[in-house]
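Researcher: Go.
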Amino acid sequence: MNDANQTGLKLDNEAAIIRLVDDHGGLLFSLGLRFCGNRHEAEDLAQEVFLQAYRGWSTFDGRSSVKTWLYTIASRVCQRMHRKRSGEPETMPSLDALLPFGEPLVATIPSDESDPLYIQIRNESREQIESAIASLPQDFRMPLILKEIVGFTVPQVAQILGIEEGTVKSRIHRARLKLRAAIDRTIARREDAPPPAYSKQTCLDLLDAKQEALDRGVAFDTDIICRRCQSVFATLDLASDICRDLGHGEIPTDLRERLLATITK
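Model: Structure:
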């Protein structure tokens, strides 16, 4: 959907929100499913977000993109609607707990995405990823969803959430490692881990560089890394790929009909 200041045309509230529902309804519903954890709350979230967007459309001045504006509303609605559940985690595991530096064996993922083993691992990992996202503390879950599932950049996530870019990066990086670890635990280990090729600090520095590459959506040269790091990076890549897949989908037909009925009544 083009911004009003780009097209020179300001749509009225009803026409604008109908287009927003069609353009962003599926992705917003996906955000709700992953943040709230169930369909009922995700539908409530979507309805509240689009209703607020409808009521506030006249105040949208085009200084940010429509998508950024819409998800700023969504993040506030999520914070208000979602109350901490009993047993929900408040902290993240330590970095050492999230990385397999001491493992005697390493997990192996085929590099060929058409390999039947790769397809099997990917299919089996989706459930693990969804469960790991649901287990993230809220302060880590929302930045991860906005970046990895919705597809915003780190600066855009910082703008939407109203926090520093460095804080966004730190939370996304830790959350990615939690998702990676969830996949790693389910993959068969058939290969002895070779002796470390570098110091632990060098591996951590390479990991930071890999995370920065994921932040920017650019390739990372794996020729310079040891076998242990290759395994870690392969599961990081797989987790990110599955997250992107979670953003694909349509808004449920019955939900769309209810939304449009509310807007056009």
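Model: The longest strand covers residues 189-192.
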